[in-house]
Amino acid sequence: MNGLLHQLVSGIASGGIYASVALALVMIYQATHHVNFAQGEMAMFSTYIALTLIEAGVPYWGAFVITVAVSFVIGAAIQRVLMNPMANAPVLASVGIFIGLLLMFNSVAGWLFTYTLKPFPSPFGEGPPLFGGFVSRHELGSTIVTLIVLLTVWAFFRFTRLGLAMRAAAFNPVSSRLVGIPVGSMLALGWGLAAAIGAVAGMMIAPVVFLDPNMMSGVLLYAFAGALLGGITNPLGAVVGGFMVGVIENIGGAYIVGTELKLTLALVIIVVVLVVRPAGLFGKTVVNRV
């Protein structure tokens, strides 16, 4: 029973990371109707920026804030420079851009920082586990940070005029332009926020998996499974789906398929959702009358 409870708590902690990346995927999907395959590599590159700042003597939370800001600028620049000219391009052209970004970030990170595994510091200390040994300090701290980020993003979209304008631009860009909303700027802001959220996820997961150019490949797969499970068109559903995938991964990996095969659980979730309920648990199926 204690083992099951520990796996559940660890799953919630991991699910918070997947929920963050899933939310970033949904934000880009709502703006472009494509999945950003480079989301994980962008988060990885941001984490390397944070490590470089920390090694240069910048305090952890100072490096955290700077990295989030730099990641926001990188995400907004990608939208303006690469994606904006591709607004009316064929679907495969946009997919090619995403795959190219994935390869570019991975290769540049390996070239600049090498492919050697590097430890990433945790800001939450190395003390003994808390609450009777069920949760480590980093698991608890990363879950709190992730929840703060998710709640902040939710409040931004729910209660601010800028957040409402971003939602409108992503949902219906033509009508948004007619009422004076600068759609291009809103989409760039969305890309920036997605990159910043991904950077937070990367910095929270790096102390667990160690830092290397390929560290986010599995995380991206779990996050994609979470986004599909909750609903690729529903930000709240994607967050819930991310937490669910984290719990399924930990419990299934510990008691069903083993740790070596638990990545296949994400693939199973993706296939089952696409076959049984493509819109996800919280998504809506849209039917167009022709």
Automatic annotation (TrEMBL):
Locations listed in the record: Cell membrane
Topology in membrane: Multi-pass membrane protein
Keyword Cell inner membrane: no
Any GO MF annotation of the entry: transmembrane transporter activity
Keywords on record: Amino-acid transport, Cell membrane, Membrane, Transmembrane, Transmembrane helix, Transport
Keyword DNA-binding attributed: no
One biological process term in Gene Ontology: amino acid transport
GO CC annotations on file: plasma membrane
Main subcellular location of this protein, as a coarse class: membrane
Domain of life: Bacteria
Transmembrane regions: 6-28, 60-78, 90-113, 140-157, 178-209, 215-232, 263-283
Coiled-coil intervals, chain numbering: none
Similarity remark: Belongs to the binding-protein-dependent transport system permease family. LivHM subfamily.
Name used for this protein in its record: Branched-chain amino acid ABC transporter permease
